[in-house]
Amino acid sequence: MMLSTGSYSSKCMQKEMGHIQNNKPFNNLFLHNKTAGADEIQIDDSIIKTLGERKKHMCIKKGNDSSPACNKASIPGTVTQRSCVYGGARVVLMPVTDAIHLVHGPIGCAACTWDIRGSRSSDDDLYKSGFSTNLEEKDIVFGGENKLLETIIELNKLYNPAAIFVYSTCVVGLIGDDLKSVAKKASELTKCRVIPVQSEGFRAVNKSLGHQLACDAMLDYLIGSGEVKNPSKYDMNIVGEFNVAGDLWDIKPLFKNIGVNVLCAITGDSKVEDIAAAHMAKLNVVQCQKSSNYLAARMEEKYGIPFLKVNFFGIEETSNSLRNVAKFFHDPGMIKKTEKLIESEIWRIRAEISKYREKLTGKKVAVYVGGNKAWSLIRAFEELGMEVIMTGTQNGLPEDYERIRETVKDGTLVVDDANSMELARLLKKYKPDLIVSGAKEKYLSLKLGIPFCDFNHDRISSFAGFQGFINFAKEVDRAVSSPVWNLTPKKCSGVKENAG
Amino acid sequence: MGECNVIKKDRNSVINPLVTCQPMGAMYAVAGIRRGLPLVHGSQGCSTFVRYSFSRHFREPSEIAVTSLHEDAAVFGGRRNLISGLGNLAVRFKPDLIGAISTCSSEIIGDDMVGFIKIAKEEMTQKMGEKEAESIKIIPISTPSFVDSHFRGYDNAIKALVDNLAEEPTESNNKVNIIPGMVNPGDTREIKHILALMGIEGIILTDISDTFDSPLRPSATEFRPFYPKGGTTVGEISDSSNSLGSISLCNYSGSAAKSLEKKYDVPSSLGPIPIGVQNTDQFLRNLKKYTDLEIPEALLDERGLLMDSMADLVSRYLFGRTVAIYGDPAISAGIARFVCELGMVPSVVCTGVESKEFEEEMKKVSKESDGPVDMLVGSDLRALETRLQEEPVDLMIGHSDGRLFAKNLEIPLIRVGYPVYDRAGYHRVPIVGYNGGINLIDRITNTVFENFYDAEHWKLQQ
Questions:
Q1: Residue B331 to residue B218: CA distance in whole angstroms
Q2: Treating both helix axes as pointing N-terminal to C-terminal, what angle do B185-198 and B433-452 enclose, rounded to 10 degrees?
Q3: What is this model's ipTM?
Q4: Partner of B21 for a Cys bridge, out of A111, B145, B210, B444, CB 3.0 to 4.6 A?
């Protein structure tokens, strides 16, 4: 459902929103997934030339039976956009602000990953430092367990942190250090929470397992071990919200307004003790459904906390998410407040949004990301009048592609684990007006003359909620309307050059 | 004459590292080869996080392939991954050179890279034909991540390239080999500018100046931006044995030059990096030594311009100020000497490596210092932060990773080196050569203006 072009009236908007909701009630609730027809998929050579075994990882969405193959090992010798299992665990836990994140491995694993996620903190900044046991040759030969134990004791003395997360890396898996027993011993010696994360980099084909292992670490060592001082019947966690660029700070006030108490975000701007008490919530909502569905499902299993899938990107998605939460709490007052809030927020932002919508209508977008954004952004772009012509992820699972299939229009190209050469070819072929991706893809697309918008760890504007949607529209407009694209041979056409 | 104290880190842990692991340095080196591609034999994070880091610093795409080692490889070895990785890369990218870079995993598993490359070559010959397979050079580069740092990785890579590619000398090519070290595109361009003024043809081992700073000119050509213009050709590396001499600019990058000297009698010199007046003088003397060419007027003028800005600015604004310098062991030592030339005191010089060459160079520098020099070796940013909390300095010079505590300690930070991700264009602006000296002195003095002077009374302060 698209919003009408031009000026908004509050009533009209509200009617449309209501209509959307009536059509697809609870469209954000958990859906059981099936993989459909992945084996028969083969992308046509006319769209992209690529290696035979890669052809089934791309498809044109048509009806209900097209999802690309996924969750397979990348082909060796490609420039993959993927990361490792350790990387996946690190990004999920990194936003825990008052913890030490100690990487047990050679120096590079810590050196390349400290302070690389724009997750913001309202208080502690310990999480921004990089800690490493710096495994060296002698440790490889004799084992690194003693060094790890000594390092934990030393760091605990230096910082007195709320917890120490200890990440395992490839080397640790190969030399066989027993992370769990060292953590246990260190915990007893220091009285500090020492939490092992079994994230050997090579353990899986992409970082998705890392997300799960990070969740396991929280489930096994943290959640359930603390308590909330003043529990209320409207306590809720936001799971899979990492406060990148302050997203959480745009979401929290909305819930405060309707009377829901956000106990804890896992893990954005969180403290160790908040997560420890997260099991006392009455509801979990899941924002990043790529990394955190698992956590919510396990918490439901273990503590009986129901969960809702939410999405705070875009007007319709934000509104529906709020409505679903209010509906869950069965409080007529809250439901009323929610409708009022949605109405007033839409009224507040309508003029600005229609300004951007006028400029952006008809522009074509490609999305290539690591997480849930491959589907959660689609509606937001449609609300700006833009058309998503390609979407994909580096590490999607079958259920991710299911969600994509439900969300995108027929004719949309869906890609899995596209490497840099495939991306470049697709960008040249499809010539989108914008690509939404992360830092590695940024300069690749700009060099091809394709405007770029960062929707990853590096972005500096919050994009969540109603206010975030304005920021988002502004950022998209900045990328698309930059005068530089009037001065360059746009989108690789028109200029013939020899091979460089 | 300042005393020099060598201070080692008194901790097990590394907190806010100043170095990363070896493979990154090798990727840097291979990225400077024309139609060259690094292939990292390891986990996906090993290439991905380095690409991420390169992107943030250079604001350029970087193509680094990986063999994607997974659990089965950890058990059965990475043979299949490396062989098929090389094959796929060869077929799809048709590179001139692949640098096969080992990692902690592949080294511990014990993969025989040299043997695997041979098998891969045979497979490629069958698939692509002998001529095409032969045109793709595959160089094994051993970079165990658990030994030393990325500087060693860079050195190992340049040595592997030269050892594998340099041919038996025929006749002199009248060229000089330059091993720039892990400097910026702007620095390499400045070196090439100096060579051009001297009338010398150089072989830059390797040249990232155009591969990590390339124009935006979208074209329909299939392979761009995978192969940006520029970079050192394989032919140039083969020819490096015919050169008059080799100069390694950085105190950690001398192995390839030593190897050429030992095998083919190509004389070599190691450092110091031409930052500041005397180090640049030394570089020119080395060039003169190998080529017998005179220093041209144009270079003397450039030197004169640097002297002129020093005369204008030093005594009024810079003299006596204390500086903390950190990061790359060669760049840090070079800047330390330059700040001495500016009448400032390099009170603390901090690097993540422990190296004899660095310590020797710093001991010489400290003799030129007006005050004591604390040399933090094998250290990290936390150690530097603690040292500066106890004894503050007026200015910090180093890369962007020090920005957070610089702000907390209210010490102005002048950014140089790698990585600089919170300023624009620093990878393009040279700090080497006389021109680089001028850039540095301007950068330092402007920071002093902004932080130590009252803008309202500006005219009076002139």
A1: 35
A2: 140
A3: 0.95
A4: B145
CA distance A440 to A451: 14
Amino acid at A203: R
Whole-number Å distance between alpha carbons of A342 and B160: 64
What DSSP state is assigned to residue A100? E
Q: Contact B105/A105, CB-based, under 8 Å?
A: no
Collect all residues with Cβ–Cβ distance below 8 Å to B41 and sequence separation of at least 6: B66, B67, B69, B78, B81, B82, B85, B100, B101, B102, B103, B106, B111, B113
Angle formed by the axes of helices A85-93 and B44-58, nearest 10°: 60
Round to whole Å and give the CA distance between A86 and A451.
31
A479-496 pLDDT tens trace? 999 999 988 875 444 334
CB contact under 8 A, B105 and A202: yes
Neighbours of A7 (CB within 10 A): 11
Question: 3.40.50.1980, 3.30.70.260, 3.40.50.300, 3.40.190.10: which CATH number matches B175-297?
Answer: 3.40.50.1980
3-class DSSP assignment, residue A73? coil
- Nearest-by-Cβ selection for A79 from B63, B87, B150: B63
**A241 and A329 housed in the same domain:** yes
CATH class of B4-16+309-460: alpha beta
Asked if domains B4-16+309-460 and B175-297 share a fold, the reply is yes
Domain contains A31: no
Is residue A230 assigned to a domain? no
Judge whether A152 and A119 are in contact, CB under 8 Å.
no
Strand segments, DSSP code E, in B56-154 are: 65-66, 97-102, 137-141
Which chain A residues touch B65 with a CB distance below 8 Å?
A: 77-80
| Total count of residues recorded for chain B | 462
Angle at CA B227, nearest 5°, toward B243 and B173?
10
Token digits of residue A396? 């999607």
Q: Name which of B356, B352, B341 is nearest B381 in CA terms.
A: B352
pLDDT, tens only, B102-154: 999 999 999 999 999 999 999 999 999 999 999 999 999 999 999 999 999 99
Residues 60-119 of A with CB under 8 A from B: 73-87, 102, 105-116
| Ranges of chain A whose pLDDT falls below 70 | 1-41, 490-500
Residue in B with minimal Cα distance to A155: B13
Are A122 and A44 in the same domain? no
Any chain A CB within 8 A of the CB of B292? no
Q: Which domain holds residue A252?
A: 235-341
**The CATH homologous superfamily of the domain defined by B22-152:** Nitrogenase molybdenum iron protein domain (3.40.50.1980)
Q: Are B145 and B103 in contact (CB under 8 A)?
A: yes
Residue A184 lies in a domain: yes
| pLDDT score of B1 | 62
Q: Is residue A372 part of a domain?
A: yes
Residue that is written with structure tokens 């048709």 in the block: B94
- The pairs formed by B409-416 with CB atoms below 8 angstroms and a separation of 24 or more are B409/B385, B411/B324, B412/B447, B412/B448, B412/B450, B412/B451, B414/B443, B414/B444, B414/B447, B416/B327, B416/B331, B416/B335, B416/B440, B416/B443
